[in-house]
């Protein structure tokens, strides 16, 4: 454990809590992609199956359980409790275009051809693209509420800090996880335009962040 990974975990948790509280307090999931949240829940489910097979630390176990509980609690708010506010028409990204290639790649590129290892690899690849339905939805509607952009900012910051974590571990421990690093770089790239808009518009006090509408 180093400061970059710890900070990344905190940012990840903050992002998830921000989103959950936003939906709960406003009693609305408007502007939130249920498809992205389903993908993230699938990421956590396939990655944390080792909860039943191994114990690393109390911190590790607690964080995994919290991520899982919050992920499925958020989904329940979107698709059940506040489903009347969910905009399914705008949340129209074709997730099969992500799931099929990711599933195929996880079988081709992994560290061991075992069920748990393939599922872990699948989760790493899927996490790198799971935010795309949300970004697509924002682009399609043309704007995002500031609280939603705060969620995306902390989610992107979490990935950036994890890249710093991999660099630190490589220089200090000589450890290099090619799958995690490459997937993390891809995911961070998706956030680059968003980061620019976040710093230049949202932090200047605008209630919403406007984006170019698709042609």
From TrEMBL:
Listed GO CC annotations: COPI-coated vesicle membrane; endoplasmic reticulum membrane; Golgi membrane
Highest taxon, organism lineage: Eukaryota
PROSITE patterns noted in UniProt: ER_LUMEN_RECEPTOR_1, ER_LUMEN_RECEPTOR_2
This protein's record includes keyword Mitochondrion: no
InterPro entries xref list: ER_ret_rcpt
GO molecular function, one term: ER retention sequence binding
Name the UniProt record assigns to this protein: ER lumen protein-retaining receptor
């Amino acid at each position: 454990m180093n400061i970059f990974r710890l900070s990344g975990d905190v940012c990840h948790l903050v992002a998830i809590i921000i989103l959950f509280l936003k939906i709960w307090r406003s009693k609305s999931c408007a502007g939130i992609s249920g498809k992205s949240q389903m993908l993230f829940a699938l990421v956590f489910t396939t990655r944390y199956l080792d909860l039943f097979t191994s114990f690393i630390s109390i911190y590790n176990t607690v964080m995994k359980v919290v991520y899982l509980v919050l992920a499925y609690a958020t989904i329940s708010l979107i698709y059940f409790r506040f489903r009347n506010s969910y905009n399914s028409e705008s949340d129209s990204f074709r997730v099969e275009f992500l799931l099929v290639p990711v599933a195929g790649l996880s079988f081709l590129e992994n560290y061991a051809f075992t069920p748990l290892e393939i599922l872990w690899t699948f989760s790493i690849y899927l996490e790198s693209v799971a935010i795309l339905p949300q970004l697509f939805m924002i682009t399609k509607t043309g704007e995002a509420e500031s609280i939603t952009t705060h969620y995306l900012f902390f989610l992107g910051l979490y990935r950036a800090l994890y890249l710093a974590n991999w660099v630190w571990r490589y220089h200090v421990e000589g450890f290099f996880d090619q799958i995690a690093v490459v997937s993390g770089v891809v995911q961070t790239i998706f956030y680059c335009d968003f980061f620019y808009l976040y710093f230049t518009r949202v932090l200047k006090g605008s209630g919403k962040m406007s984006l170019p509408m698709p042609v």
